[in-house]
Design goal:
seven-stranded mixed beta sheet; 17 strands
């Protein structure tokens, strides 16, 4: 029967069993006695106050304090009992009293027709924009007065996705009720419909025998095993089978495709537990920093690489790391054997390949190999020789000095993005990066070169230690974070240096690291240099993803960052849209803001609880742990 999991998830679930209790028993007794002594002392001290006029209010306040001491002891240290349902912060902060006096606003369910609503890729709105170069498929967000003030529903019958790695091959039909691809791509082995579920055999347009065998073919041409290739980007990803099968090789791919006639292809990818975003190469830069990916891939992605002065390959060059590879399969590669099946003329296909070769050469790429259906080019490690060649040809010219990482609604330019200066032809522009997994903990070149204002190697190392401490604390508050199959798709809404993701890298999950465009420091390039993935985003707008994308959302100081920039409720409604039923949230922020967040969370029907900072109750910053309760559209909504 469709519905929630048999285990009831709560914001601060605790581990059960005697083992944990024995481990902490001695510490519990000491801490409990200390807290009881302090609470009693302050109670007696308060009773001694001679101000008779305030006796009643003082005693009432101290009673609350005594209750809170006991509650804190239970929530923080007792691993064998359930945590209290409510932590009363009234005595610690007057904001709680002010908030309680205001009736909580409730947010009704949206109509069932909004179950797959993507605000910035709305198909009706997109028709208002030019079709030339697929501009209408780009982000076009609603105006403020068009924002929904309701909760996007899951379809009736929604079930929690299969656990990874089973989810790589299976997804529930009720969660993504679209059969079109099973017919349209039947011969290509993309997806099959089997009763109440979909099966993903791992096939693709250019790899009907499976992505695993296709990746093995790539591995015979370039080294995929030594850790030199860690981050990849897949343009026009389909259901992201290429990215899904790279994960077993410790390569993480950012897969993207537009929301187009291939209904729900990115949604299928996310349901499988594979990183993906809705996106398209059109008139704007991709929302990633320069020099981000070790490998870029296109398998019959239908992007006209040789047209428009090569602007799309120029954009791939921008996001490709020095020495990185671009892999192309499908038209026009191997056209002599496929031209009849592709229903195109030899001359047409030959001209297309000639255009691509010409653009690649103008970017100073070296063609590594063309074998069978695969062709691979490599970007140079620096631009020393390229600049020499530019004296003879100016097509495309080098871009003027600019910020190559600027990529939020930034126009693509038909000029070659400059690489950082080097002193020799053997030097890697921007700094060499260690192989994976060593690169995760090494100081990123952008930081060691002082390219990010205010971020030093010492700050980087301290941030790593801080997040190891914080993740340990998170797991004591909610042990679900330590369960290997509880979360798969994770979002960090304000990632800074990626410390949250790095602390979880050994778990069977992936983290989408967001660097808000309003953040003081642009650190996304450093995150990629660590071998992690992410994207730029403004949380005043919706994210380029489907509803129910993430199992866990982490928000560190997000609401402080966006205070006076946009409405808190709109950010939280977006969090609700992209969070799966029974998904979890961890929000850390100033206590004044967190009390308001708690009130909105109640209106969203989240079960939530405020807990103290890992350094104790005297810190102004608090944490809110929440769970989105299971609910769907009614049965008759279809």
């Amino acid at each position: 029967m469709a519905g929630p999991t048999t285990s009831y998830y709560t914001p601060t679930s605790k581990p059960a069993g005697a083992g944990a209790a024995v481990h902490h028993l001695k510490k519990n007794i000491y801490l409990s006695c200390l807290i009881l002594f302090l609470c009693s002392f302050f109670y007696l001290f308060g009773s001694w106050q001679p101000h008779i006029a305030t006796t009643t209010s003082t005693v009432t306040s101290l009673r609350t304090t005594t209750v809170n001491c006991a509650a804190t002891t239970t929530a923080t240290y007792n691993a064998t009992t359930d945590p209290p349902k409510d932590l009363d912060f009234t005595v610690h902060h007057s904001a709680a009293t002010d908030a309680a006096a205001v009736a909580a606003k409730t947010y009704p369910p949206c109509a069932a027709t909004y179950s797959e609503y993507t605000p910035c890729q709305d198909q009706k709105r997109s028709l208002k924009f030019p079709r030339d170069r697929l501009i209408y498929r780009e982000r076009h967000c609603p105006e403020k007065d068009e924002l929904l003030k309701c909760r996007v529903p899951a379809p009736f019958g929604y079930k929690n996705p299969f656990k990874w790695p089973t989810s790589r091959d299976l997804a529930w039909y009720a969660n993504v009720p679209h059969k079109d691809l099973t017919v349209e791509k039947a011969v290509q082995n993309w997806i099959r419909f089997e009763g109440d579920r979909f099966r993903f055999p791992g096939g693709g347009t250019m790899f009907p025998n499976g992505a695993d065998a296709y990746i093995d073919d790539i591995g015979k041409l370039i080294n995929l095993n030594d850790g030199s290739i860690r981050t990849a980007i897949d343009t026009g990803c389909g259901v992201a089978s290429w990215g899904a099968y790279l994960l077993s090789r410790n390569i993480i791919a950012m897969s993207f495709a537009p929301r187009d006639t291939h209904e729900a292809q990115v949604q299928f990818a996310l349901e499988r537990g594979v990183p993906a975003l809705i996106g398209v190469i059109a008139s704007k830069r991709l929302p990633y920093p320069s020099r981000a990916f070790d490998m870029a891939h296109c398998s019959r992605c239908l992007i006209p690489w040789g047209q428009y002065d090569g602007v799309y390959l120029i954009e791939v060059d921008r996001v490709l790391r020095p020495g990185g590879y671009w892999i192309l399969s499908g038209p026009p590669i191997n056209w002599r054997n496929h031209w009849k099946g592709w229903e195109r003329t030899k001359d047409d296909l030959n001209e297309e390949q000639t255009q691509i070769e010409r653009v690649a050469k103008s970017l100073c790429w070296k063609k590594v190999v063309e074998k069978g259906d695969l062709s691979i080019w490599q970007k140079p490690i620096n631009h020393l020789n390229c600049k020499t060649n530019r004296k003879m040809t100016q097509n495309p010219p080098l871009c003027p000095v600019q910020n190559p990482d600027s990529a939020w609604y930034t126009d693509i330019e038909t000029c070659l993005t400059r690489l950082p200066e080097v002193s020799s032809s053997e030097e890697v522009a921007g700094g060499a990066i260690a192989n994976w997994p060593q690169r995760l903990d090494m100081v990123p070149p952008r930081i060691s070169s002082q390219s990010i204002e205010g971020v030093t190697p010492e700050v980087f190392q301290e941030n790593n230690l801080l997040w190891n401490k914080r993740i340990s604390y998170y797991k004591t508050v909610n042990n679900q974070l330590g369960q290997p199959d509880r979360y798969r798709n994770v979002l960090d809404m304000n990632a800074f240096l990626g410390g949250f993701a790095a602390s979880l890298v050994k778990d069977p999950l992936w983290v989408m690291n967001i660097v808000p465009v309003e953040a003081k420091a642009d650190t996304l390039g450093a995150i990629y240099e660590r071998g992690l993935i992410g994207t730029y985003q403004s949380w005043c707008e919706a994210m380029s993803t489907y509803p129910r994308t993430y199992d866990l959302i982490h928000a560190d100081s997000v609401f402080t960052l966006y205070k006076d920039r946009c409405e808190m409720e709109d950010i939280m409604l977006e969090m609700d849209r992209i969070l799966r039923p029974e998904g979890s949230l961890i929000i850390r922020d100033d206590v004044d803001l967190l009390v308001k967040i708690k009130r909105i969370a109640d209106g969203l029907n989240w079960e939530s609880q405020i807990v103290d900072h890992e350094d104790g109750p005297l810190e102004r910053e608090k944490l809110l742990f929440a769970v989105k309760l299971y609910w769907t559209s009614p049965a008759d909504s279809s």
